[in-house]
Amino acid sequence: MTRWTPDPTFYPSPRDAAGAPAEQLAYVAAFDRSAQKPDAIAVVDTDAGSDSYGRVVGWTDLPHTGDELHHFGWNACSSALCPTAPHPHVERRYLIVPGLRSSRIYVIDTKDDPRAPRIVKEIPAEELAAKADYSRPHTIHCGSDGIYVSALGNGRDGGGPGGIAVLDHTTFDVRGQWEAERGDQSLAYDFWWHLTRDVLVTSEWGTPDMIEDGINPELLLGRRYGHRIHFWDLAKRTLVQSVDLGDQYQMTLELRPAHEPSKEYGFVGVVVSVEDLSASIWMWHRDGGEFQVTKVIDIPAEPAATDDLPPALQPFGAVPPLVTDIDLSVDDKFLYVSCWGTGELKQYDVSDPFHPVEVGSVRLGGIVGRVPHPSFPDEPLAGGPQMVEVSRDGKRVYVTNSLYGSWDDQFYPDGVGAWLAKIDVGGSGGLTLDPRFFPHGDEFRGLRVHQTRLQGGDASSDSYCFPSA
Amino acid sequence: MTWGQIAALAGLGAFHGLNPAMGWLFAVARAMQERSRAVLVKSLPPIALGHLASVAIVAAVVSATSSVVAANIVGIVGGVVLVGFGLWRLLSERHFRWAGMRLSSAQLAGWSFLMSSAHGAGLMLLPVLATTPVVSGEHSGHAMPGAASGALEGIAAAGVHTLAMFAAMAACAFVVYEFVGVNILRRAWFNMDRVWAGVMVGAGALTIALSA
């Protein structure tokens, strides 16, 4: 049922959204690597005034096993205010939750009891395959004309092309494949857009058969993982331009366009360079008619003793930073960069997107460092800051530590564990771990934790159609 | 047309113009994007034109038909269609879908045409077009013979309607762009779709009642 006035979590502009109240709850994707127990959505209390602050306060167990929950998103967001197809009286209440391994998509209703969301629909893998010829659904974004879902592979055999499927806003039925003309694009991973510019951007990881059994050293050293990003016409659904970063830059993953609708730039993280194990951040921007993509941040590998390294890294004598997620604050001021290998979250001031300045850093876990949380100094941590989510006001940052089941096992072979840390952001930058907020270990029932979504929206959930000023 | 009809047409036009979904919000967004009042001014005529086309088609068909068929039959059939469409709009949660935002003036007119048509804007004029007004003689459309003059009368009605729509839309766009800002939408954007659908059902019922 629709509302009489717009959903209060929808904001016309990024500046309006940055004034949103603090989130009371966070939803965290949790999965069982052994595929014996069901995956779940864990609900975490983020209300600093609450007795159960920083604790897991609710669970929604899924009915199946082996889904491997990963990323997820909302049914509707601030794009509902966009003037071409406005529908601001729908509610932001459903989480659209794909199983990255099962290709099943759940629709979970958070309205009636936000601490115990209820599964209201399952889209079987067969429907996604039959109607869109896709599998391994990944990123969810709420578009103005439907719910967009990226997928890593085709619906048949674990190969490409991966791409984007569109779900109906209301029924959640799979409407079909998004692309009208895809050129030579085959690898897929993340996507987002410049809504007011009719531009959609996609990145490249690998097809299911390149990733599901773990990172494949032959493919990596053969430079076969994705190293391009693609720019599409959002209205015509056609590929307009592909930019190759160079085949040494393996795995272009998260895409973070500026939230400000009048801007036309964004950032993409590259996991690893096969030349020196460094990671990098690149910025795309419109230069005349075409997009240019330039490297703006280089993060070098850190030397390490062979004995401290897992077998996969011993030949190299160094720890790669492995930038696996990045996130841009709603005001487009700070870029957060997860170095999952070295166990570090870096904060850059990107007010000048061409010249990022590092202004903050927190170390937790890491392949060699195993840095503990200050509140639990006797517990060395595995994994590193990985999925990063930023509150709408930019004051709080949440990080979880699992990357992807089979890849966790290679880089953290003695177990990756499970933890969710919260970091407070200083006014002009600077990061401080919140000592009161660290659900970890058994609190997550033996499941690994991946993406976090904040109640009411967060820095990677909403897009806006009206400029701030 | 009688003064009563003109007032009704203009009132419905203002109602359509006030609805952010019918175009003024798009004009504001385009102007904000380009930081240009000129863009606001240039965006409004194509939107009005698209609305006019959508409404005029329905109006011409209804008026032409009622010139050659007994008016009460047009009223009853049209009223049933209107009630049905209104109920469907009321109960269905599907919304108009459109992906692109960077449109030429012609595309903007096309967008407005589709938006108005999908919302059944022209149908809402049915009570005014299909019912015989209670007036003392003079020339209502039925004084002129034939379907062609009926259609012309329908188009004139659509014109009156669209003038009012344009005025309301321009006023909203100007006030929001210059003074209020779009954040007002968060509180003030009343669910027009529901009101709209309710008006349709009411208008359809009224048409049937007046025709029967």
UniProtKB/TrEMBL annotation, chain A:
Q: Which reaction does it catalyse?
A: methanethiol + O2 + H2O = hydrogen sulfide + formaldehyde + H2O2 + H(+)
Record-annotated membrane-spanning stretches: none
Q: Which PANTHER family match?
A: METHANETHIOL OXIDASE
Indicate what this protein is called per its UniProt record. Methanethiol oxidase
Q: Tell me the protein family, please.
A: Belongs to the selenium-binding protein family.
Pathway info = Organosulfur degradation
Taxonomy, superkingdom? Bacteria
Coiled-coil residue windows = none
List, alphabetically, the Pfam families matched. SBP56
Q: What is its EC number?
A: 1.8.3.4
From TrEMBL, chain B:
Any transmembrane segments, and where? 6-27, 39-62, 68-88, 108-135, 155-180
Keyword field = Membrane, Transmembrane, Transmembrane helix
Annotated protein name in UniProt? Uncharacterized protein
Q: Which organism is it from?
A: Paractinoplanes ovalisporus
From the broadest rank down, the organism's phylogenetic lineage runs: Bacteria, Bacillati, Actinomycetota, Actinomycetes, Micromonosporales
